[in-house]
Known about the structure:
Elements: E1 5-6, E2 10-14, H1 17-20, E3 27-30, H2 45-50, H3 65-72, E4 79-82, E5 93-100, E6 118-124, E7 137-139, H4 144-151, H5 159-168, E8 174-176, H6 183-190, E9 195-199, H7 202-213
Parallel strand pairs: 2-9, 3-4, 3-8, 5-7, 8-9
Antiparallel strand pairs: 1-2, 4-6, 5-6
Amino acid sequence: MTPYYADDLVTIYHGDCRDLLPIDADVLLTDPPYGIGWALHGGGHKAKMAGTRIHAGIEGDADTSLRDAVLGMLPEMPGAVFGSFQAPFPADVRQVLIYHKSADSGLVGSVTGFRKDTEPIFLVGPWPRRDVSRSSLFTSQIGLQRLQKVLGHPHAKPVDVLIPLLRMCPEGTVLDPFMGSGSTLVAAKSLGRRAIGIEIDERYCEIAARRCSQEVLGLGA
């Protein structure tokens, strides 16, 4: 298949990842549909305060079958997979890390007074045994509302979380079959690592290609 975009380190494919996998890579870092049927319909004081806009939802997010099908195609690849505490965990999770979002997030959908500002990161596959060297908490200093507005993706991940996560991942080519706006690829490229991204929505392929083609890669957009 002809790449949508390619440079010395990054290759992007436009299409359904299930039609392209398996791909020759060494480690998986991805943010798939969580399986929670997410949609943002707007309205309400919290939504207005957060500056959120109507969004019809994420393709393949009705349940975890898409995520699990893709992980099943990559059983021998160590991976870090973002997810939700509100959906079933993947099979054979080795460990759960925590992504702590910026202070402007988690305002919509909570009724308890506590922000919904954490997500699990599932470590799956054959991770190597190592000495304990760092916390399992990954915190971002990048405002998510601005990041999502700039990138046009409702669940864009900040690069200041992905870079330290990638540093802990096994070496080699990074694969993201649910690439979105390309943050995984930007993080990998900033570390001098090869990366392959796949995205079914062409508008996000365009955004990711533009980000990866920039000579100066900022942590946010």
